[in-house]
Amino acid sequence: MATLQLYTKGASVWIPDPDAVWVSAQLLQDYTRDDKHVLLQLPGGEEECYPVAAPSDLPPLANPDISEGESDLTALSFLHEPAILHNLRVRFLDYNSIYTYCGIVLVAINPYDQLPIYGEEVIDAYSGQDMADMEPHIFSVAEDAYRTMMREEKNQSIIISGESGSGKTVSAKFTMRYFAVVGGAAQQTSVEDKVLASNPIMEAFGNAKTTRNDNSSRFGKYIQIGFSRKGAIIGANMSTYLLEKSRVVFQAPAERNYHIFYQLCASRQLPEMRSLKLATPEHFRYTNQGGDANIPCTDDVMEMERTCNAFSILGRSLLIHIKMKELHLFLLMCFFSTKLAGVLPEQQMELFRILAAVLHLGNVNIQASGRSSERSYIDADDVSLAIFSKLLGVEAAVTAHWLCHRRLILGGETLVKPISGQQAIEARDALAKHIYEQMFKWTVHRLNAALRSQLGRTRSFIGVLDIYGCVTELQEGCYLALLQLTSSSVCSFETFERNSFEQFCINYANEKLQQQFNRHVFHLEQEEYEREELTWSRIEFSDNQQCILLIEGQLGLLDLLDEECRMPKGSDDSWVQKLYDKHLTGRGHPHFRKPRMSNSAFIILHSADMVQYEGGGFLDKNRDTIFEELVNVLKASQSELVAELFQQQGNKPSVANGSVRSGRRAHREHKLTVGFQFRQSLQLLMDTLNSTTPHYVRCIKPNDLKRPFMFDPKRTVQQLRACGVLETIRISAAGFPSRWTYEEFFFRYRVLLHGCQGSGEVQLACRQALPQLIPDPDQYVFGRTKVFFRAGQVALLERLRAERLRMAAVVLQSWVRRWLARIHYTRTLWATITIQRYCRGALARRLALILRYTKAALVIQKTYRMLVARNVFHLVRQAAITIQAFIRGTLARRKYRLLVEERAASLLQARVRGWLARRAFTRFRAAVVFAQCCVRRRAAKRELLKLKTEARSVERYRELNKGMEVKLMQLQMKADQVARERAALKESLRVEREAAANELSALRATIQKLEEHQKRFTARPVSILSEEEQQERRRAEEKAARELLQLTQEVEALQREKASLSTERDRLSACLLQQEQAQEALVQQAVSRATAAVRVELDEERRKHQGLLREFTRLEQRYDNLREMSQLTQGYGRTDSTQSLEPLSPSPQSLSPFTSAFPSPEEVRRISVTSPSTETRVWSLETSMDQLMNMMDVTKKAAVELKEEDLAHAYDVVRVANKCLESQLQSQRSEWEQEVEMLKCQLRQASSGLSAHQQALLEAREQECVRLRRELKGLRSTVPIRRLLTQVFPSTFLTESSSSSSQQKAASTTGLLECKKRDENKLIKNLITDVRTDIAVSLPPGLPASVVFLCVRQADCRGDQTSAYSLCRAAVTAMKTALKKHTNDVAMTALWLKNICLLHDLLNQHAPKQTNDPEEVQPLNFDLRDSIRTLSDLRIQAYQQLISIPKTQLQNFLASALLEGEDVPGLKPVGSRKRAGSEPRTARTDAPTMASVLKELWVLHDAMSHQALHPALMEQAFHQLTYFISASALNSLLLRKDMCCCSRGILIRLNVSQLEEWLRCRDLQTEGAVASMEPLIQAVQLLQVGKKTEKDAEALLQTCTALNSDQIVRILSNYTPHSDLDEKVSLNFIRMVQGLLKGSAHAQPLQLLLDIKREFPVTFPDATPPVVRADMLVIPDSLKISFIRRV
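The structure assignment produced for this chain is given below.
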């Protein structure tokens, strides 16, 4: 054998290990056939002798390094268990890759962690890609099945298997999600949402916690998901099998009942749940048997809400089915309703009542009585029974009676017999199980009604089949799901401590599915060999047909079980004895055995394991009986739902999962057993599977502790052996597992092909060279496109290749050593010659130096003499020059003085003449200004007289505002009263002033008297003072001196304190200044941050708004599609072109059917900011009359009556105005009273002591009072009233002014276009709706918008409000229709985008609120802000449509063009090995290149440039497209391992450089278009830089700043060298990079793939539109709009 040659010294092998299952070892010596043992070195360094009795006992060889982490297990050189286990461990732990191919099987390892590989961006990356090109993924299998279905029009199947907890449910969910996105997003249907929404309901009612899985399915379900011919999901249907009813009444330790019971108990505090009388799960017998009822990281309240929401989502199809004939009304109701219930709220509550009743039924206390406990009874006051009866609407006494009795019919007589306590408990539990089963079936029926297809016949379908596991697991693996283009989960074989009927059925199903799997794998191998035209011999594989016949064959286990169930006295022991007699006597069956220590059990040798079954309970579970009396009690229930459940059971011809037991013998048709039904269902399932093309997914549970990324080799190997992966490997290894295309083989092993230099005749070269490399012709075979090898031959070729490369390296080394020796000799010879040359040069330089010294002496002498003579000459020359300079300076100064005098005289003359001229001009201008002032004064006087006359004309206002005169008279009376009060106050002020003056004169008189008295006293002679008086005077003077000194000291102290305070003040001022500066800096920083945050928030709001517009467009398109479908269903034909203009009528709701119901975000934001209340919004000018009536709940008839009563309206408005005027007067009066009080205070102060300042203040206050009185008189005028009425009710007072202004504008405005009312529809039709594409593209940019605007302005100028509104709205609607008509035309979309933007800018420019300079822009008379807002939204939709067209075109070939474009000249062509089993693809002659991408970009740029769109808008568009290109390419690069190489990186960088150059040539890089490609550029650089040392890792982090940690690690892990000069990235380097990433900015938790659906918010530039005039427009005759007239 050629494989024995590989057992040489240094080879790696695998040896068994009790802990790690297999460990690696290294051979220390070569192996020969005579050796009885081999010497191995273990990983720890110790040596071991491994016994080898024969060559077949040799340890398995390890695969070469090239196969390390291979994505397809069948591509390994050696296919055996340790190689598979090691490859899975490396991919799982080192590369964090949970998916691996094994031929046609996808092996999925549960990571027990959330991975960012299931988002919509991943779905987009896998959609449309070949399975062989992408990394292994569940989406890749789903995409392969979906594409095969669409291409071959044949149903597919994806069979997912594995133990419980291995991720089967999650894998099935993600597969269904993939189909829902791929098959539903394009058609905008909601069926995919309903399919996904059925999972929470079925999980709540059919899943439970087991010992090894918190969400284990305990029933079998089969969901058929229907697809249309276009691949869209249009319906679904569900069937259920073998519900584990025993779990309702019994749970093993550490397990739970079904989730719905715990969800109800957790929600018991809700108001609607209080009537159910629920408590905690520990309170009920049916939920407390398993112990702890909590599941970690699970909130039962949230799960309950999720279940109810799923019911609501699924119910929408019911209304669609009912209202299909009234589809328009239904769609409008959908937008206004907040929740549509599938199972109505009252029906949901009925369901919850039934579930609560089951819980209370378990707490019913059944007591035994009698001598031998042969009787039983229930207390009449049992609370649980009363609640059960109340919830189900049955009689408590009747229920209690039939729970403890049974009816027998003997000889025509009816007997009622009591039953024992144990039998009564069993009857109670049977009733609970039966109620839950019927409710479960009813729920499934309602789900089917919601999921049923309403859109036509399904071409293919998706089916999901899920069969549960059993209780008390040792090895659980009970999930069976089939996806028909399907996703299907297959259960693993189960072996429990006590195996019963449930395990028997599941293992029987697994035998059938395992047989189908083995035969399909063998069939694929056969097809591969036949396609390659190989001569092959039959491959033997294990067939379990005998085991299947033992179960389902004639007189097999199921037949004997059904026969025993039909026997009147049949028992489990008699049935087991029949099995012994049938299958053990005689020759016996090879798969049936009898246990040694039991006579009631039997053993079946399944294909995966030997299972012992206990016979007890098989007959009861197969019959599944319930007493008929209890069913009749439930049929008579007052609850409609409960009666419906059991009435349906009675109407069926047969019972689905058993029979109803009564005293009377049942008919034969009621004898369908559970085993019989299960066998029929399984046979239908197998027929369905055999009619499809299956795809397989095997889920592996890496550990039992549920720890993330923990690999237990024992558990993994155990599952690999049971799930069929090793069987697949064995079948592949029996044939030719290693397969290489001739090109791949040639480029890999061309060093072994002698004489082959080129790749012209690759196949011929391989056929000639391979017999020399592998002498045994049985080890390989040549196919049509591939060469096939048996196991181990690739490793042999790798060894030969390594030897050849080693010999070539030795030859290269000898030549290099010779070259190095020759270089050493050459360098020595060159050094010797150099030394000699330097010595000779030194001697020559010494002689030259002597000669140079002699010559230098002569030169010095000559130079000295020359310097002496030169100095004498310079001295004479300098003297002559000095004399000449002085003379010339004198002459120049003389001439300068003359010039200055002449210049001064000229300047004086000029100033005098200028002063004279200015004086004359000033006088003339003053005269002109005086004349103008006179003229203007005269005109102003005339206008004043006119206004005074108009103000005095009270009759006019009296006619408009009846009742105002009375109010004005009252106000006049109040003003007069105020005036009288003012006069009284003034009189009192005068009296006070007189009193104060009198008092002042009296005081002055008193002072005068005192002065006279003092003068008389000083005139008297002074008498001589006595000594005592002198001493008293001296003491007083001393005291005064001391006080003066003390005061002086205090003053000095105060001055010092003042100085210190001044210093402190200066210091505090400096500190405050510094703090103010710091605070100002902080405020500036905060303002900058707030500004940035506001900008970000604004961008986010703009993005959300544009996203809502996009969603609105999608819903509008969906509405149109459904309306067309409804018209087709009603028999309507296609409307002609004349009827297409009906939506263009000037209806208020013509713009959109949901405009009034859903205001734009700008409108909501404007109302919330500018409107103080809702009433202000109601009376705003922008609100139309219809909307106003709808808001105020006023009918149109009432509105007509109101219009007829204008006087009443005017009177109400005047009343409002009067109230406003009264409030103003009251506020003015309160202010006046405050002023009066202040004057009184001033007056009182003045009475005490008046001064000149107070007198002046008093005079100022008097003047203020006069001013207030004057203002009060001014309030009597009607100008404020007129202004108020104009604001509140504009239609009354603006009619005349608008008509007069419109007449003036009509007279003054020219250059417009006039379109008659009857020609408006024709204009819109010829100009917008029905214009041909070639004509529209040839039009000048913005011509339709200009024409429409000029017509609208003309209608506005002549005062025709209706025509202006109707024409504007019709144009907007027509543009929207034109956009929908050309959804795939770039040129037409750009054209209408230009026209929409131009029309929006023109209307916005001429809007009344935007017009500031009436001389330049004349405003419109009527408000068109609704149309402007609609145009603003419409231009965003047009922009989004324009961007989506090239994105759709690029999505089909972008990844291929950017990643697989033209090869770089000089580089080796990159080829990648495809997965085994993938069909070879023919080379495409029209493969997309970068030129195709640039062509699509050029089409968009040409269309936008032709329409003269704003450059900023073009930059934003190409920014969006370049981000889409970069994100798509980077996502494909991250998911394709064959693209991660250096040569491919150079090619991608070249393509990106072409795109950058294209953008720079057109000045499109300023808006971030080039910056958005930075992640892709850095990823390409990562492929090209060194990846070995720590410096390389640090440089890598500094370079890749735009990539996150997951992306960097994924690229390094996927790096695959495609040449011998390159190496794979070592795991140590990857770990080093991961360690550096943890402490850097790359460690932030981001998703792996970029979101290619990300939309940047568009900002339209605020540019002034050009001036539009009719004489500037060139309207071609092809438009046929000659009926419009230039004005």
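Interim note for the steering committee: The mean pLDDT is 76. The chain has 53 helices and 29 strands.
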